[in-house]
Design brief:
mainly alpha, single chain, 354 residues, hpI Integrase, Chain A
Length: 354
Amino acid sequence: MQAHYTPEQLDSLEAQVAVTRRARVHTTTATQYSASVRKYFEWCDKAGRARTFSIDSLQNYAQFYIAGFGNVKVHAHTSFDSVLSAMADHATATGERFPHRKTERRRPLTRFLQGLQRRFPHVPVQDLPVTLEVLQRIADALGLRQWRDLLQCRKWKLAFWFRLILMHDCHMRSVATKNGMQRKDLEDCGGHFAVTVGRRASERKVKDRIGGRRVAILADVQHICCAGVVARVYLRRIRGRTPPSGILLPFVAKNDHVSEDAEPWGRFRQRVQQLLRQCNVPGRFGRSSMRAGGATDAFAQRASTHWVKHQGGWLSRQFERYDRPTTAQRAVVGAIYAKRALRAAASFGAEGGV
């Protein structure tokens, strides 16, 4: 170890410390936090209040945020907790006083928010989890009854279906396919495919995470809702001769013209939402719909926590938020539990002589 560090080394260290401080919060989250705090300060200005985080101002803003100036639910489907998290992060960074969690100063605000929740129940609206049940309905609407239909269907249908089923099986966010991925991201391993998700920083949520990409596995089973067999047909018919750095998921028009650009997420989302309405499937198709649908189906098939975390690239227990079983899936699990309970009861009765 050197005796003294040079000014250049210390400056470099300080610069890295600043980057690490910002890395605690994802870039997208930091942007949302800034917007939330800015809206609060704008409200303070309009209300003639100081730009501080006093209990009285926070209570008044929470009332306004959820219910406006009367008894009308303005943000009935949003959570004020995320707004408070943004404020706390800002206060910590600037050194301002704030009623942080688990402090005595926070208690009046907590009690007020409990009353607000009782008066105006506000449950955040979640994206529709696109499970295999929903995907089967979409496949039927596209006229895809079995995997062999992929060999002769229109190319635009094959490309559209592959993007959907790929996102589901790999538990992808919308950002993962927004640039179309690269051909080298899909590797044929014989009996299965290996998919590199987030190879480029622009295709992952956490842009500056070192080693942020992950590898998901696609099983190669001959079924219309299995991404492996769909990938095999897709490569054969559309992208088999594409160079490694070429686009994997180009936009294919309804005249089967294959472009060299990806279909923007907004237009892709609208097409899926239209199909969902056509299939009488309620709910909002959003950025986490495929991620939630894939995780929900994996857990419904009793996949291990370890497997789901690796497939979806989760580093914490946040994956639990994406397990949203449908009523039908819960009914199946409920029947299994009921049978176990009845067997246990019968065994107990036999042992007790009843």
